[in-house]
Amino acid sequence: MTPETSRPIHYLLAQSAVAADNTARIDWGWTRRQQPDGRPYWINNEGDHVYPLTNPRQLAEMRRGTRVYRGHGYWHFPDIDAVLDLARARELEII
What we know:
Elements: E1 9-13, H1 17-27, E2 31-34, E3 40-43, E4 49-53, E5 67-70, H2 80-89, E6 93-94
Parallel strand pairs: 1-4, 1-5, 5-6
Antiparallel strand pairs: 2-3, 3-4
């Protein structure tokens, strides 16, 4: 949950920050925002914050129930099927 909104935080797994931005804004129509440090995030159709994720190993550190959207190029990561299987076993919501 984000402190300012009390809404869940989600992630967008993509090959790069540019691929994540294109997926979020162009394909899905999400609004882009910036964190105070300049890093981007998006507001999805439900009003939740979605942050870019370009390192699939970070999935192992996420809390159960975290929603992870699959964006452009995620399939290029080495062993992505095994990584996603592990994420599902940890009860992450992979979309």
